[in-house]
Amino acid sequence: MVIIHFFSGMGPKLLDATGQGVLWGLMVLGVYITYKLLDIADLTVDGSFALGGCVCAMLIVQKGVNPFLALFLATLAGMAAGLVTGALHTAFDIPAILAGILTQLALWSVNLWVMGKSNTPLAKVDNMVSLLAESTGFSQAKASQLIGIGAAIAVVALLYWFFGTEIGSAIRATGNNEDMIRALGVNTKWTKLLGLMISNGLVGLSGALVCQSQKYADVMMGQGAIVIGLAAIVIGEVLFGWFRNFALKLAAAVIGSVVYFVIRAVVLELGMNPNYMKLLSALIVALALCVPVAANKWKAYRSYSEGVEQ
Asked: Could you tell me which residues come within 8 angstroms of residue 190 by beta carbon, excluding any fewer than 6 positions away?
């Protein structure tokens, strides 16, 4: 009864966490492309997420741009960030992780330049969330949730189609076996560059949606985004590791994001210091990455021991 009462009292917070989880889920899909498909640890994410939010906020507040058009331009800004990282990695042979760090550091200054200050509120202007809430009578949290679900379904469907095409399959093959796909005549530098652009485009899109949902953009809003993305991917794999269909794997990443934000909301409600959330995220990722390796080593040791005994 205590548990039921606890969760019933958390209803609005869980709704808000679900909405935020779906919106951040688009960022998780971007991380999924680089981490799972290209086998690249792209740290551009922290900067490109904030870039999407900053560009979106400035276009709506300062230029009076339509929120939907601002969303599209924020996506292009994220793709531009991915282009820089990709160019550093493919054209100048800088290791991918270092190229991402360099772009992320540069984006801190770029984001400040875009907004002219550290944060920009959207409280007095219309955006996608407020327009939907006003037209339907829904709460801001419910409107954010609906927009996030619609965007996630559209993006998952689009990615499923794209990665089934010839160029999309080449990108996936680049991460699986770069030497083999290069031997077949595919320019792997181009596939990596395109993959990084698509990934950071989704991250910028997510940042713009989160910006409109929370009604402000901040240069710090992307801090720790890569850890959140990895944690969500890991949670999705743990819960739905039996999925074999590619579309379902993409959906599992988004669901993992929702579960992560729900867990965070519950943990915060239980009284955990918010400053420790990044530590919790890091522990989730570390455990999820270490446990399978440790289990495989244990199985190998048991097999070896049994072979020696025989």
From this structure: 90
Tens digit of pLDDT per residue, the chain (310 long)? 444 444 455 556 788 889 999 999 999 999 999 999 999 989 999 999 999 999 999 999 998 999 999 999 999 999 999 999 999 999 999 999 999 999 999 999 999 999 999 899 998 888 899 899 988 888 888 999 999 999 999 999 999 999 999 999 999 999 999 988 999 889 999 999 999 999 999 999 999 999 999 999 999 999 889 989 988 998 888 888 788 899 999 999 999 999 999 888 888 888 778 788 778 778 877 877 787 788 788 888 888 777 766 6
Residue 280 burial (C-beta neighbours within 10 Å; 0-12, 13-18, 19+): middle
Query: Contact 20/213 with Cβ under 8 angstroms?
Result: yes
The model's pTM: 0.91
Write the CA distances from 208 to 4, 39, 127, 159, 180, integer angstroms: 35, 26, 11, 19, 38
